[in-house]
Design brief:
Layout: E1 3-12, E2 17-21, E3 25-31, H1 39-47, H2 59-63, E4 64-73, E5 76-83, E6 91-97, E7 117-118, H3 119-131, E8 160-161, H4 179-187, H5 189-192, H6 198-245, H7 256-263, H8 279-327, H9 346-411, H10 417-440, H11 446-460, H12 465-486, E9 498-500, E10 507-511, E11 515-518, H13 525-545, E12 554-558, H14 574-597, E13 602-607, H15 619-622, E14 623-627
Parallel strand pairs: 3-13, 3-14, 8-12, 12-13
Antiparallel strand pairs: 1-2, 1-4, 4-5, 5-6, 6-7, 9-10, 10-11
Length: about 625
């Protein structure tokens, strides 16, 4: 999108108007203070939906009834106007013209048949739509907390370098004091660069949603595996009991599906044949196994309790021995001498040696006890694992025994043995049905979700997000450094190696001597000015270069000459030459940008400077207004 300001117009209450006509490329508005130069930024920002108007009170606000800007957007014209009225401050005129003939006689009557729109609604949304900004939800994951849409207001910090900002060491861009606002701006930079659009975020959210569903399915499948393992054991026990009753062995099977098939084709015994059952033998076998496992569990639990008691006592003993050991550490010498005559005292020497031996024995005992504690801990862990296995087996045995006992109690109620088996068959059918129901819903539409996910990922491939962002980062820094090296950047820091990050909008200079230097690490307004011009014009060129960028291609620069405080712009002193070089380098940068992108971006300089020598660039060619005389001013 190629857009810049064509006209800035102020309508008075009686229909009179003051207007300033601009072009793409460099536009110079020069004049003394209090002529209304800086107010132009505020008027443009007000028309771009600023919540709080900051247009200066006084002559301008007293005269004005309606503020208006006309922007050229590709081959069309976007007309935006806001009333200077407290009651109508939340309203705005927005219209798009496809033919420039409407400008031939453009006056206040143009708005008579136009509808005032709410800014927080159709007004701002129409401006964003005409500029190509259409991302309503910049979330890349499905979340109840919306990050909100990419906003026109979040683009404005890149459009103005105010008088109190252009040479500041504390901030690079305006309106970023609020952390949340700055975070939103940074997150929306890919949108402002035209790297991504509404479809990109929609695809990312759909991919996130399906990925979450697939993870949920995977969790369900794991639950199914656990369920199947548990019910397979249950079904297997019932089938073993059934086949034992009819005097047969349960055939081998490989998986739950084959076991279900066996369960659906259970054998019958012939009514004419005697009823042969291994039920009693199986029941006895299970009871014996249960008794053995119960005894094994009791022994294991007793062993665990014993070791835990011993371990507790051992730790107490180690603690006491360690305490004694600490109190006897000073016993080092085995020979004792009389402090008066200096002769050895044999009785004391023998006693010291005894103490020394006792100490060595104590150390050995402490080490032995510590090793025992480590072994004890490992043995205890193994016993507890074994106990859990025994408890699990006991539970399985109890289930089988309960089934047999239930059968035994029921068989007394049945007169026919076939009815007795029917009871067990019914239990098997219930379990089979439970398993089958889980298997039938086990697919969860996973295949369809996987196919849809692959399709979405394929659609996302057209966005070369990382490579586009890296390319943008490289070009931004390349253009910023090219301009900084041509400006009055302090000699000892040359060449400028600026790194302006798209990830956090920070800027540093990688110095060969001092390392990474921030904007605030520099002294001299000339350095701060170079940083600001390099960054703001670098972004202007980048937005112009990205063909899908919705950011308007204009930049206001207010009072760039203030750093040098030249007294006489007609003189030839060094400060004047530095100011002239600023203008020359801006012109060169704009022309270079046009060669690369095919778009001629717009820079609007508001300054006191006049009659500058721009070498082969004619100064007057770029002047759009001069407000030096008493009668010359915006109003």
């Amino acid at each position: 999108m190629n857009s810049y300001i064509k006209k800035i117009i102020i309508f008075g209450s009686q229909g009179e108007q003051r207007e300033l006509t601009l072009t793409n490329g460099l536009n110079i508005i020069s004049g003394h203070s209090k002529k209304g130069k800086s107010a132009l930024i505020e008027i443009v920002d007000y028309c771009l939906c600023a919540t709080v108007p900051s247009i200066p009170k006084g002559i301008i606000s007293d005269f004005s009834d309606l503020f208006c800007i006309v922007m050229k957007v590709d081959s069309n014209y976007l007309v935006i106007a806001r009333p200077n009225n407290d009651d109508l401050r939340s309203k705005i005129y927005v219209s798009l013209e496809t033919n420039k003939s409407f400008l031939n006689d453009f006056n206040i009557s143009y708005f008579k048949d136009k509808q005032l729109l709410k800014i927080k609604g159709a007004g701002q949304e129409n401006i964003e739509k005409f500029l190509g900004l259409n991302v309503l939800n910049s979330n890349i994951v499905n979340s109840e907390k919306l990050k909100g849409k990419a906003s026109l207001r979040n683009m404005t910090p890149f459009l103005y370098q105010y008088q109190n900002l252009i040479a500041s060491k504390h901030a690079l861009f305006s309106k970023m004091d609020d952390y949340n606002k700055k975070t939103n701006i940074i997150e929306q930079i890919p949108v402002f660069l035209g790297i991504v659009d509404a479809e990109y975020y929609s695809l990312k959210r759909q991919i996130d949603d399906i990925s979450k569903k697939l993870k949920a399915i995977e969790r369900e499948k794991q639950k199914e595996q656990t369920f199947n393992a548990q019910y397979q054991k249950r079904l297997e026990g019932l089938c073993i009991n059934y086949f034992s009753i009819v005097g047969k062995n349960l055939p081998e099977y490989r998986n739950i599906h084959e076991l279900i098939s066996l369960s659906k084709d259970l054998p019958f015994f012939d009514k004419s044949e005697p009823f042969k059952s291994d039920l009693t033998r199986l029941y006895s076998k299970l009871r014996t196994e249960l008794s053995n496992k119960t005894l094994e569990l009791n022994n294991t639990s007793s062993e665990i309790k014993k070791i835990e008691g011993i371990s507790k006592n051992a730790n107490k003993t180690i603690s006491r021995l360690s305490s004694i050991q600490n109190r006897t550490e000073h016993v080092e010498e085995t020979a004792c001498q009389c402090p008066i005559c200096g002769h050895d005292v044999e009785s004391l020497t023998d006693e010291a040696q005894s103490i020394k031996k006792a100490l060595n024995s104590l150390n050995a005992e402490v080490g032995s006890m510590a090793n025992f504690a480590r072994f004890d801990s490992e043995q205890l862990e193994n016993l507890k694992i074994n106990r859990r296995d025994i408890q699990k087996k006991i539970s399985e045995l109890n289930t089988q025994i309960n089934d047999l006992e239930s059968y035994n109690s029921k068989i007394k109620e049945y007169k026919d043995k076939r009815d007795s088996l029917g009871y067990l068959r019914a239990k098997i059918e219930v379990v089979v049905e439970q398993i089958s129901n889980r298997i039938n819903i086990g697919d969860f539409g996973e295949k369809e979700l996987i196919d849809e996910l692959e399709s979405l990922k394929k659609s996302l491939q057209k966005y070369n997000f990382e490579s586009d962002l890296n390319d943008s980062q490289y070009k931004l820094n390349s253009w910023a450094n090219s301009l900084a090296n041509a400006l009055d950047f302090e000699t000892q820091f040359l060449p400028a190696k600026l790194n302006l990050s798209l990830k956090d909008l920070s800027i540093i200079h990688n110095d060969k001597k001092y390392g990474k230097l921030r904007l605030s690490d520099f002294g001299s307004g000339a350095n701060w000015l170079a940083f600001h011009l390099a960054a703001s014009i670098g972004f202007l060129r980048l937005f112009s270069y990205k063909k899908n960028s919705p950011v308007p291609n204009f930049l206001f620069i207010d009072q760039p000459s203030q750093v040098y405080f030249p007294r006489d712009f007609n003189s030839q002193d060094d400060d004047i030459k530095k100011v002239e070089n600023i203008y020359i380098q801006i012109i060169k940068s704009l022309k270079e940008g046009r060669k690369v992108s095919g778009k001629y971006s717009q820079v609007i300089i508001l300054d006191h400077a006049d009659n500058l020598d721009l070498k082969h660039f004619k100064y007057e060619r770029y002047v759009r207004a001069k407000w030096f005389d008493d009668k010359d001013a915006l109003i």
